[in-house]
Amino acid sequence: MNKKAIFLSALLIVALLLMPFSASASYTPPDSVPVRSQAVLMANVETGEIVYEKNADQKMYPASLTKVVTAMIALEEWGDRLDEQVTVDGALFDDLGWGYSNAGLKDGEVLTMRQLLYAMLIKSACEGSNVIADAVGGSVSDFVDKMNERVKELGCENTHFVNPHGLHDDDQYTTARDLYKIVQNAMKLPVFMEICSTARYRMPATNMNEERTLVTTNLLMDQATGGVKYYYSPARGIKTGYTPEAGRCLISTASQDGYTYLLITLGAPVEDENGEPITDMYNFMDAINLYEWALPNFQVKSLVDQQEPSGEVSIHLGEEKDSVLAYPGEDFSALVPKNIEKSSILLVPELPDTVDAPVKKGDKLGTAKLMLAGEELGTIDLVAGESVNRSEFQFYMEKINEIISSTWFKIAIVAVVGLIVVYAVIAVIVNQKRRKNKRVNRTRKM
Fold first, then answer.
1. What one-character DSSP code corresponds to residue 436?
2. Range of the domain at 414
3. Which of 8, 266, 273, 392 has a CA-to-CA distance to 79 between 20 and 30 Å?
């Protein structure tokens, strides 16, 4: 680790002691980690946890980050045809204007889809984007329709495209969070990261061009172009972007000690508050600052001791036992600062006062919230630590008592008593009539 990283790590530990933590919410880097980009989202690839976000849902212009979507759809639809040849149609360059990034493709040049993808993702070739879009979609406009349909399928709610290359259009926009969803999907595709992580690609000679070397626009990955200021050896991929309207943008990853982070930065300024050009490329500087903050200082840790009881529940009708201890039923791991230990985690049980026997070991009794410095990290199940049989004698005695205490039983008793009373009254009346009849009969006989 270099001196800058050590210094940032020390400052982070101090800052961590003064801030609330949550595995379900992003952290905040210390003031010593400047982040100048307007919108940012940084996530751990292994866990999917977002460690930092800034204006992640704000609509931004994507510039050439658009080409990630173009590559994603090309790989999804032509993944088994990457070595199929495509002939460049120069008419596809007409809407690009002047000064766009390109790989020097020529009208009538024959390349494979794989070579076109390298040209688009490494050299940020806008003309390559249109050639890919036309080949895959049948036309550029139909391909753009595919782009919008596909990102909606991925759950992107604030993204819209009008072209496959990213040259500015007021109606072409996205957010850091939507790009995160897109890149997560793209990274799963074979070849995507292989292409994006290539700093220099030797393009074979074609019918219109001699062999040439394509150099990445991502200065994090190429030491010769990035130099001491921008080269960052742990970085891999993914795509740069720039227009005056979008500012400097970057999607990248970096790995160290078994952890990989995906970072999206949008809108790094290109002018200062006085309108003077900024020569520093803040998209790369922001990335290095954030990686040197996150990579050394976060770790996935098990935060639950499954052997430690978290509460006790009374057992109703238990045989020989009238309570059972509740234990964490599962491990819980989260990406947290390295200085956080299990002892720092507070388990807040949510358990019923009583449960009915029988209870089997491992039965769910309730849940527990995992709290750290007042913030909820997650929820786990709490389960019975042992089995408790039901007392059959108590069970049947309770059933009898329930029957006796029930309203229907009381109604039935009242009804029976009523019937007995009615029967008794009727019997008395009948007996009286019989005695009267006997007296009458005796009188007649006399």
1. H
2. 406-445
3. 266
Which residues of the chain fall below pLDDT 70?
1-26, 398, 441-446
Angle at 158 between CA 155 and CA 159, to 5 degrees: 85
What number of CA atoms fall less than 13 Å from residue 312's CA on the CB side?
5
Whether 214 and 254 share a structural domain: yes
Q: What pLDDT does residue 18 have?
A: 32
Task: Indicate if 288 and 345 belong to the same structural domain.
Answer: no
Instruction: Give the Cα separation of 241 and 130 in Å (integer).
Output: 17
What are the pLDDT digits (tens) for 427-446? Answer: 888 888 887 777 776 666 66
What are the tokens at 329?
A: 């039923």
Task: Count how many residues are written for the chain.
Answer: 446
Same-domain check for residues 329 and 233: no
Single residue among 333, 351, 384 that ends a domain in this structure:
384
Residues pairing with 277 in the sheet: 271
**Taking a C-beta distance cutoff of 8 angstroms, is the pair 272, 301 a contact?**
no
CATH number at residue 378: 2.60.410.10
Q: What is the pLDDT of residue 366?
A: 97
Q: What one-letter code names the amino acid at 362?
A: G
Contact 31, 7 (CB under 8 A): no
Last residue in a domain, options 254, 280, 296: 296
1 is a domain residue: no
Q: What is the DSSP letter of 390?
A: B
Report if residue 25 sits inside a domain: no
What would the pLDDT profile of 334-357 be if each residue is shown by its tens digit?
888 888 888 888 999 999 999 999
Host H or E run for residue 347? strand 346-350
**3-class DSSP string for 353-386:** CEEECCECCCCEEEEEEEEECCEEEEEEEEEECC
- Are residues 115 and 81 in contact, defined by beta-carbon separation less than 8 angstroms? no
Asked if residue 211 is part of any domain, the answer here is: yes
Position 399 scores a pLDDT of 72
Instruction: Say whether both 272 and 343 belong to one domain.
Output: no
Q: CATH no. for residue 162?
A: 3.40.710.10
> How many angstroms separate the Cα of 39 from the Cα of each of 5, 50, 195, 284?
23, 14, 26, 14
In terms of domains, do 240 and 124 share one?
yes
Q: Does one domain contain both 145 and 38?
A: yes
DSSP3 helix / strand / coil % (the chain, rounded to 5) = 35, 25, 35
Global pTM value:
0.79
CB 82 within 8 A of CB 114: yes
Omega before residue 238 within 30° of 0, cis: yes
Indicate the angle between helix axes 66-78 and 140-153, nearest 10 degrees.
90
Nearest Cα neighbor of 201 from 114, 129, 282, 267 is 114
For residue 29, tell me if it sits in a domain: no
